[in-house]
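tool_call: predict_structure(chain=1)
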Amino acid sequence: MVYEQKGVQVFEDKKECGYRMVYEQKGDYFGTFNEEDFEWPEVRRVRESDSETQEEDEDEDRDELGDGDAIAAHDAELEHGWERPVDPASQDIDFADSEDVSLQPQSCHAERRQAEAPLGQHPTIEEFPRHGAGAPLHCAGITAFASYKDKLPGSENIWAPFTSYLDYEVMKWAKLHGARSTAFSELLAIDGLHDALGLSYQNSRELNQIINQELPCRRPCFKCEEIIVADEVFDVYSHNIMECVKALYSDPDFSQHLLHAPKCHYVDSDKTVRMYHDLHTGKWWWSTKAKLETKKHGATVIPIILSSDKTQVTMFRNKSVYPVYMTIGNIPKEICRKPSQQAWILLAYLPTAKLEHITNKAARCRTSTNLFHACLHHILEPLRVPREDGVAMASGDGVVCQGHPILACYSADYPEQLLTTGIKSGECPKCDVPWDELGYLVAILAALLLVDEDYGMWTRACQECGIKLGLLHANIFHEAEIDARCHRLPPNNNIHLFMKGISSLSRVSRMEHNQICHFLLGVIIDICAHLICAVRAILDFLYLAQYPCHTDQTLDLLDDALTRFHDNKEIFVDLGIRANFNLLKLHFFRHYVHMIKLYGTTDNYNTEYTGRLHINLAKDAYRATNHKDEYLQMTLWLERRKKMLWHNNFVQWRLTGDPPVQDRLPPDMDYRRALKMTKHLTAKRVPLDCIICDYSATFFTEALAHYVVHTNQPTLSAVQLEREAAHIVLPFQTVTTFHRVKFHTINASGYCDPTATIDSVHCQPPWKDNKAHIIPGRFDTVLVNEGDGGTTGVNGYHVAQVRVVFTLTSHAAAALFCTPAKAPTHLAYVELFTPFGQPEANHGLYKISCIICNGERLASIIDISDICRSVHLIPKFSPVVPREWTSSTVLELCSSFFVSSFSDRHAYLTII
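tool_result:
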């Protein structure tokens, strides 16, 4: 049977696997053409570049780093490895402090704190003006879980269709934790194991039959369709997008969180300063809803967010898949960004054919684009009618509304943006700016070209463009010196140490770019004032752009950071680092503020979260196949997995019931953290002599005596405290120590996730690895609350280096403290740094130094609860870094440091 459908010929073909639709694409998305219209290469075959054959972001299947001990051992091995020799030119470097230049001042820290103060607080909300916007039509009377229960055979058994709790848990382990089918069958084949466990299946085949036949399907199933483009047939595995929308909207886990109508959030009662976070707080949803209300009163907008990215699923055979993911903007972003919540659905696998039978490169690229558009046109076609007329949508709690699914965002990397918009490489997919004006440096480049023609004209042109001539002769560090600085940065939980430097990196991944940003300002902090200002500005922009919540005032900070970068970026041209700034990524920064005001903050639609989906929905699915006819096996494996995940949520609902309704709060800015000690102690009965020698806690007994006296008698003067401490005798000779302190985040609702460690502090003496190599000790630096520290800012805080974290026995606490019940359970011996002063003018970082008294570090004992977080210190390097410094000794050998506010997002938010 053959019929026409809007320029696409459709065939129905019955095959062994069922009905399969065949779509033949007619015409060309860019007009008609003949092969003679293209220029043919002189050689028989043109080899494609790596970027055309494979567009893969390396960090997306990067495994978790190994445990801390393995990393420490590896870094220790590289610490004393070969380094490039010192460049003689590096010894004559002019420091930024000596430059006589007029710099644009950094944004005032007080202004930034004032702008960021309303973030995360309860806003003033303006509802959509028309009554009934997003209102339910009626209640279906039955919830999604109740409907599922009715379809489940033997539902009176809570574990149905499995016989018992053990039967169910073994199945869940086998299907959700990566056990191979053959291995699982061989496990159950052990004599007596099946009967001992009382399982209802004897091998993987029987288990799969139970899942396929007895578990109801609540998510849509894949269908295979053939699309014909350029007389070649391509298989496309996809879901019906309308069924996907209904499945997400009706998921009972999301029902109490769904966003039905747009709202304007303001930080002030006068409604003058807007707040943006989730998609419904942006202007797009509001304007789209207003247009729909003129046609359909009470319509509910269902914003659809798509994302696509080709990814490699093998290490050596260059096998790739092209998944397309989708979610709906009605689900809050804090749910969407967690893969375990299943808020994203794999919509389709697009063809990955290289079209090698088309020898003309231009024709091949054009055909590839036609194939991409033909696939997406067919996949999105079911949205055409519901978009305008609406369709009844039932949420998980049984409430029915009139939904209008509308494509809102397409999140993709630049190659996919080119495919989607049909523009040339190098052009902006959002605006019509000419390529040669992307960097706004045409006049500067023209001026610099005059240097060899006419010196007078060159100097006048440079003055007109604002180029500082002195900078053209500035000395810049040799790359060996930059690598030496990277080699000697102190360790920190949030810092990846590049022990071999960064100059030799090739094909730098997104994760490595992010890691370099954490310390980049520190390694160039004394090179050139204009360079420092430019780097600080672009880092400010990158960190501000990642905020989960923005206001009009913080968006002004974002614009200001970009302006500061453009005011100082000519330094890269002056120094010969770049010839121009015609960079698409740099130009894209101009669109950030507009996009945030339209669609909410960038974490609603960035590719970082969807990149994580490749692991579960592409790579793991491929590894579960025998690599023959893999798409059929992958889709079947994914459907079983979806059934199991949905059934697991159903079982949890039967055990615990509906979760309590929670108030919707703006996204938390991640200010609060909860400290948690490790479950088990690290070292028991450590002698005090070892504490002093191995942990370098030189004045441990004296500091503990001072702490005991101050705790018992807090009103004593310094002289009285010293006198009383001299009479304290410690009733023990050993203590119990801990080598690690962990921190967990606390969200806006006050919930702490104990499974996610976001920060940690190490205080471990030297030790030997399994090869008997001595690994240097690690004693991290922390931010300590003096008692009056606020949520943000450095007032009331100081920096210290932790030497020992220990606990006292109940007997020792009773002997030392007047009220043992109120005595802290865990204490820390720390060495102090000087208080915070004013931030440096050029880079905005705080400078601190070690406090030395009589040739020794000033130390103190503090309650472990006073430690707020770890901090990363950047050593104040000399023009040539002393080669005796190492990453493990730099905190002892260097005397002055800069406190980094770029080690992670929390540091950027709080250390201002």
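agent: The first strand starts at residue 2 and ends at 5. Proceeding to next step.
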